[in-house]
TrEMBL record:
Family the UniProt entry places it in: Belongs to the carbohydrate kinase PfkB family.
Gene3D superfamilies with a match to the protein in the record: 3.40.1190.20
Secreted in keyword set: no
UniProt key word Kinase: yes
A GO term for molecular function: phosphofructokinase activity
Domain Carbohydrate kinase PfkB: 23-312
InterPro entries documented for this protein: Carboh/pur_kinase_PfkB_CS (IPR002173), PfkB_dom (IPR011611), Ribokinase-like (IPR029056), Tagatose/fructose_Pkinase (IPR017583)
Gene Ontology terms: cellular component: cytosol
Entry keywords, A to Z: ATP-binding, Kinase, Nucleotide-binding, Transferase
Organism: Peptidiphaga gingivicola
Protein name from the UniProt record: 1-phosphofructokinase
Length: 326
């Protein structure tokens, strides 16, 4: 069983410009698409598109257009559990330019009341309670809406731990800092920082790890990830864009090259990497296979426009090369 929680889901509106963005001027748009989004929704979508059933848990009123958008995907393996809330799902806009530059404009989201936060927690535990097989995953993803406690993910890890499910957390900024502050007591089984987020967690300069990775030196990334593993996190999957990815666990660290694809839009690439990792894991793959599949799904997402998410048909023909770092 796989349940994703997206505390701050969105309708993702992607607008395509026929030329470069002209700041301070009127820009005429090419195509406009709207898709259901938010990181956990994306993870569940990718899993379901690959034949792995998943439930996307979102706070949303029963008449929220987000729910209609999820429904209209018509994905048989995708279940949606909506916890009724007063606010509407935010609309996040992505502006894409012909050279592949994508600019995201994310709203902060309608707030959650204390009672709504409690209702989401109750629904999450209820969904996961039957999942005591040790193979199930809870994926907690994205920013937190106003009103949610900044350490909500820390609390949720503590709440879910006794249920015997594996827990992935993918977030940034203050909720990520809160997660780091909650170690080692509330350590997730998987986190997926990018280079800058990993640097933030490891107390390194913002671009130190990425700069080293671009120069082909993955030691600093592996070292930062190892520190987090020593603090109790089961696996750190660091995604490094064109420089590939590094997976660190208690058994070692590996680097994977990024399969070569034409990069069209990186929106959803991180979510697709998590889906790929979990997909390989629930299919019994070892750590190298989880890393390879994460890279394949992340690269496939980057080769698709806007927030389009990959299906198995979109996976790159060439797999990553994996090298053990330690
Ligand atoms: O504002 P957050 O929660 O950090 O990110 C939300 C978001 O940018 O992430 C997804 C792509 O990863 C999009 O579907 C969505 O718009």
């Amino acid at each position: 069983m796989i349940v994703t929680l997206t505390p701050n889901p969105s309708l993702d509106r992607t607008v395509t410009l026929p030329g470069p963005l002209l700041r301070g001027a009127v820009n005429r748009l090419g195509s406009v698409t709207v898709e259901p989004g938010g990181k956990g929704v994306n993870v569940a979508r990718v899993l379901a598109s690959s034949g792995q059933e998943a439930t996307a848990l979102v706070p949303a009123a029963s008449d929220d257009p987000l729910l209609r958008a999820i429904d209209s995907l018509g994905l048989p393996g995708l279940a949606c559990r909506a916890v009724p809330v007063a606010g509407a799902a935010r609309i996040n806009t992505a502006v894409t330019e012909p050279d592949g530059t994508t600019t995201k404009l994310n709203e902060s989201g309608a707030g959650l009341s204390e009672a709504e936060v409690a209702a989401v927690e109750a629904a999450l535990s209820e969904e996961l309670r039957p999942a005591s097989d040790g193979r199930s995953w809870a994926v907690l993803s994205g920013s937190l809406p106003p009103g949610a406690p900044v350490d909500w993910y820390v609390r949720l890890v503590g709440l879910l731990r006794p249920l015997g499910v594996r827990i992935a957390v993918d977030t940034s900024d203050a909720p990520l800092a809160a997660l780091a502050a909650g170690l080692p007591d509330c350590a997730p089984d998987l986190i997926k920082p990018n280079g800058q987020e990993l640097a933030q967690l490891a107390g390194r300069g913002a671009t130190d790890l990425e700069d080293a990775a671009v120069a082909g030196d993955f030691g600093p990334v592996a070292e930062a990830a190892r520190i987090l593993v020593e603090l109790g996190i089961g696996a750190v999957l660091a995604t490094l864009g064109p420089a590939g990815g590094v997976l660190a666990t208690g058994e070692g660290a590996w680097h994977a090259t990024a399969p070569s694809v034409p990069v069209v839009s990186t929106v959803g690439a991180g979510d697709s990497s998590i889906a790929g990792f979990i997909l390989a894991d629930v299919r019994g793959g070892g750590q190298a296979e989880c890393l390879r599949t994460a890279m394949a799904y992340g690269s496939a997402a980057a080769s698709l426009p806007g927030t389009a998410l990959p299906t198995p048909r979109d996976l790159p023909a060439q797999a990553s090369e994996i090298v053990r770092l330690n």
